[in-house]
Amino acid sequence: MPAAGCHPHAPHEKLRIPDWYVSSLMLDRALDAILRRVKKLDRRHDVPYLAGYSQDGKTIYIDRHLPTHFTWRGRSVEVARYLILHEEVEKTLIDQLGLHYLHAHQIATRAEEAAVRADRVSWRAYDRFMQRYVKHIGDERLRKVPADLDLKPYRDYHDYDLMRRMEAALDAGRFGTRPSARLRREVAAYNAAFRAERRVQRMLPVAPAQRAPR
């Protein structure tokens, strides 16, 4: 028997609850479905930009120094669920739709923000907490990087300094597990391309400065 108010022939009336409640409920269910798809969550490594994913997409990495919760208005808010959503959306858009990392990252960030707001948490407070650790982690040496970390985001972001530090970490044996030959070749190729690009840019003539119109 159909539930009251849901008769197939009865006109549908607007629910007498705020629109954000309905969307929050659906978004929470969608987020739970995505979390169930994650095969492995790893918090034992150093991960640039706080979170990332393996090359095959089966593992989500969250930096080992990032706290599991932050406090907002007396609430203890778990952060992993939002980071997992971001990484899963981003990886899918890159691999399945062929999006550039920067485009996929923007969409994933919007999804992450929607999930945070749906849980009635301030996005500004959440982002401020995250940025504090992005800066902290970015300033320290890479000591334990996942051997199968997908490097495409760092390449597409043109983070040459980070890629050089990753190459140094490889040479010093500071990756968490024995890195594959493929990973070594990939990092070396990226850095060679970056160096070549910088050489070309230095060789280009500098355009004369134009005077501003009076």
How would you describe this structure to a colleague?
The protein is mostly helical. Helices cover 52% and strands 8% of the residues. The strands form 2 sheets. The chain has a 3-stranded mixed sheet, covered by helices on one side. The protein has a two-stranded antiparallel sheet with strand order 4-5. The protein starts with 18 loop residues before the first helix and ends in an 11-residue tail after the last helix. 24% of the residues are buried. The model is unreliable at 1-12 and 206-214 (pLDDT under 50).
Strand order of the largest sheet: 1-3-2
Which shape, going by the Cα principal axes?
Answer: globular
| Content of β-strand | 5-15%
Share in helix:
40-55%
Counting DSSP H or I runs of 4 or more residues, the number of helices is 7
- Uncertain segments of ≥5 residues (pLDDT<50)? 1-12, 206-214
Main β-sheet, in a few words? 3 strands, mixed
Distance between the termini: 78 Å
Total E-strand runs: 5
Keywords:
mainly alpha; globular; 214 residues; disordered N terminus; 3-stranded mixed beta sheet; 7 helices
